[in-house]
């Protein structure tokens, strides 16, 4: 009887010990996950910045949307400026700078990259002897000025060139020298901002009498040379570009020495109707 009781006791103790061990293992299994997620969390957390960076398909659509939304507003705002940038804040860049009748003034600038490709030295007298840039003109204008000088000579009028073509860099230097002398506001009444000078077209030339007196000066007005040019220049395709009494339209004071080649037909029409090139094109007067 005692042996049976002892056996039962041993069995009970064994059961209790087994239960204790099971309970202990259960506690360890609960504690281990609570500690282990921290390394697991750091591993799984790293993909989240990748998703936000736009690598996953879900995130990539938002990136193009942000990029394409900006150009949608810009095409209508600045297509002209992006293709042919204006110089020095000029209002408009001319579309065909190579045109013989191109309108270049304070509101119409030549493209920054434009340079005539057919510049030559006309066979006429100049007030200087060097073969330099300002002797050049475009071929068609050079041929016409040779005929004009020859025609003047037949009428007893001896002319000389003062300044023809000017590059953008030269015009910039010229304008800045006048600004330094008279200030920008006054300089703009008789000199062009770089990019807006007719001399840069290769179609314009300043002339004077063969003695060189009053070259590009007010005293040239009223001379026999100036009067002959006013009457006959159109016969050779030239106009006096800045006529007297038209400064409010052209933006420049009277320059009887400044000739511009526009071709025979246009020159004759402008002269016969006493127009400026701005009036011929029916454009708004040039702002000073």
UniProtKB/TrEMBL annotation:
It comes from the Bacteria. GO terms for molecular function: peptidase activity. Residues 56-86 have a biased composition (Low complexity). Residues 1-23 form the signal peptide. Residues 135-263 form the D-alanyl-D-alanine carboxypeptidase-like core domain. Gene3D superfamilies: 3.30.1380.10. It holds the Pfam family VanY. Keywords: Signal. Residues 29-49 have a biased composition (Polar residues). Residues 29-88 are annotated as: Disordered. GO terms for biological process: proteolysis. This is M15 family metallopeptidase.
């Amino acid at each position: 009887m005692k042996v049976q009781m002892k056996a039962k006791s041993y069995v009970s103790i064994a059961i209790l010990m087994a239960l204790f061990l099971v309970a202990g293992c259960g506690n360890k299994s609960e504690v281990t996950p609570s500690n282990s997620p921290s390394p697991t969390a750091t591993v799984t957390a790293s993909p989240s910045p990748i998703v936000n960076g736009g690598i996953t398909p879900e995130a990539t659509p938002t990136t193009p949307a942000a990029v394409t939304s900006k150009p949608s507003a810009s095409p209508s705002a600045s297509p002209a400026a992006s293709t042919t940038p204006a110089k020095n804040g000029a209002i408009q860049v001319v579309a065909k700078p190579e045109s013989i009748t191109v309108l270049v003034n304070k509101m119409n600038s030549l493209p920054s990259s434009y340079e005539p490709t057919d510049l030559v030295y006309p066979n006429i007298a100049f007030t200087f002897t060097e073969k330099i840039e300002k002797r050049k003109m475009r071929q068609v204008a050079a041929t016409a000025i040779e005929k004009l000088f020859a025609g003047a000579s037949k009428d007893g009028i001896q002319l000389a060139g003062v300044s023809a073509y000017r590059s953008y860099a030269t015009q910039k230097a010229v304008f800045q020298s006048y600004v330094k002398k008279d200030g920008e506001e006054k300089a703009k009444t008789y000199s062009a901002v770089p990019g807006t000078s007719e001399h840069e077209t290769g179609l314009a030339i300043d002339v004077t009498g063969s003695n060189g007196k009053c070259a590009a000066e007010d005293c040239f007005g009223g001379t026999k040379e100036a009067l002959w040019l006013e009457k006959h220049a159109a016969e050779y395709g030239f106009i006096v570009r800045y006529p007297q009494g038209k400064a409010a339209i052209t933006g420049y004071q009277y320059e009887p020495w400044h000739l511009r080649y526009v071709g025979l037909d246009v020159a004759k029409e402008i002269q016969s109707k006493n127009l400026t090139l701005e009036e011929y094109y029916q454009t708004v007067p040039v702002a000073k």
